[in-house]
Amino acid sequence: MKNRISEIAPYTRAILKAHLCSCGVDYSSLNKPVIAIANSWNEIVPGHVHLRELADRVKAGVQAAGGIALEFNTIAVCDGIAQGHQGMKYSLPSRETIADSVEIMVNGHGTFDGMVVLSSCDKIVPGMMMAAARLNLPSLVVLGGVMPNHIKPKESKAARRAFLDGTLDEQGLVEITNQYYPGPGACPFLGTANTMQGLSEALGMALPKSSWMQALSDEQMDAAEQAGRQVVELVRQGITPDKIMTKDAFENAISVLLAMGGSLNACLHLPAVANELGISLPMDLFDEISRRVPFLAGVTPNNQEYTTNDLQRAGGIPALFKELSGLIHLDALTVTGKTVAENIAESEVLDREIIHPIDSPLDQEGGIAVLKGNLAVDGCLIKQSAVPAELRTFRGPAKVFNCEEEFDEAYEQGRIEEGDAVIIRYEGPKGGPGMRELHRCTEILGKFNRVALVTDGRFSGASAGLSVGYASPEAAEGGTIALVEDGDTIVIDVPSRVLKVELTEEELKQRADRLESVKREASKYLRLYAANSSSAAYGAIRKLSE
């Protein structure tokens, strides 16, 4: 088969080849399929620190299959390190930068016939898939997998609580945390990192059961090499991402998300990937599917005993697909060149403590619910699988803060009380700007029995409790959340899908007429993001003027 280089004009082609030879490429190999290896390795992110070794195995697979692999890098932000301070404002915006940088490298050089993307964490996996969708070259996702956990999630959580209560010092917390996060790979809980790894496979873009392999295991290394072989086969067969990531495939991924109670951030990322293919995934679709897909797999933060290592042991994504087979699109194509049905033909659930039968689920509805009302006209999100039944209806007085730091100060001063409805606003895509995760806030509020959190910001996949986020429109766009005052009555009714403030339309209009906007100092990059970002209800995707 001809490669893309062969289609370039002769003189330009010759100079192009000369430059590649300057990099150590063998001239005689430049008639083969050229595969881009888009890596997000760095020495800062635990989920990415080992990706150089995986990339080497991918390249070996490409070469064995008759292709040539050329590697380049992109950025990756660790949400665990960025959490709880101003750095978190850069995490969500980095998704678009990652997609843009891969596009620049691939289209800027014009030499690639296919692509493998390597990543494992929160914004990087969707950013890479956005690039794959946008470029539409035959592509495959290789995932960094999961670090093993040597202690239970509940033990890690107890250590954090002890530190917050002042009974464990910093060194003690670090030592215990390192038993939960002992090395390379994504953090073991079902946060955004592991949610998006699993959804890459559910979309058909990663090899079966490759989502949650243990980082640097022989199994993972072999899968990486197989991925290198398979991407060359995708090039030969002309199987591109638009043939894999169809509307049916996205509905499959949403079904898996809901069945395992995955991260709310997936409701931003799946629409962003779909948008690159001209597919719309409105927030209401997530709730529609949640009404019919039950919650089957209870791992942390939905359960403090088990992690994604246990979910993998129980059969991983193929086992979840098998259990959901009556509710998903089995004829969806995948990167194996086969359908979902063909991929899972021999799969089975290996541990019913982890993946429950569909006729005996943990909950009749999926793990995520979309709430609406005058406080979130376009919708907001709650991980209902991580909310105790007795907290799914709530009524309490608002305690309002215009940023995370104001809340932190109030907590330190003892101003948060049982029964409060904490409102943290101006943390949305435009208002933050950057839409910070407020995971540290949810951890702090975990010490109370009955306190709600409502925000136009977002949450870590590790967050639990009565935490309602992604409220749209956000405060910076004049959403009702900007009009709430201390003492207003907030009503949350998860079964009825309602979030509201008990104010009349006339009272809201009067407040809107006198509303003063909140301005924040922000870097040039964040100002650019704020100017172009859409609402969380639409994936916080970048809006382009026509």
Question: What report would you give on this structure?
Answer:
- The protein has 546 residues and is α/β, with parallel strands linked by helices.
- α8 crosses α11.
- The two termini are 38 Å apart.
- The chain is globular and about 75 Å long.
- 37% of the residues lie in helices and 12% in strands.
- It is built from 20 helices and twelve strands.
- The protein has helices at 10-22, 51-64, 79-82, 93-109, 124-135, 153-165, 170-180, 192-202, 218-237, 241-244, 247-259, 266-275, 283-290, 308-313, 316-323, 340-343, 404-412, 439-445, 505-513, 524-532; strands spanning 34-39, 68-73, 114-119, 139-143, 369-373, 376-382, 393-401, 421-424, 452-455, 467-472, 489-493, 498-501.
Terminal residue distance: 38 Å
**Secondary structure category:** alpha/beta
Strand content: 5-15%
Helix segment count? 20
Percent of residues in helices:
25-40%
Low-confidence stretches: none
Tell me the total number of β-strands.
12
**Envelope shape:** globular
Strand order of the largest sheet: 5-6-10-9-8-7-11-12
Structural Rg: 23 Å
Fill in the keyword field for this structure.
about 550 residues, alpha/beta, 4-stranded parallel β-sheet, 20 helices
Element layout with pairings:
Blueprint: H1 10-22, E1 34-39, H2 51-64, E2 68-73, H3 79-82, H4 93-109, E3 114-119, H5 124-135, E4 139-143, H6 153-165, H7 170-180, H8 192-202, H9 218-237, H10 241-244, H11 247-259, H12 266-275, H13 283-290, H14 308-313, H15 316-323, H16 340-343, E5 369-373, E6 376-382, E7 393-401, H17 404-412, E8 421-424, H18 439-445, E9 452-455, E10 467-472, E11 489-493, E12 498-501, H19 505-513, H20 524-532
Parallel strand pairs: 1-2, 1-3, 3-4, 7-8, 8-9, 9-10
Antiparallel strand pairs: 5-6, 6-10, 7-11, 11-12
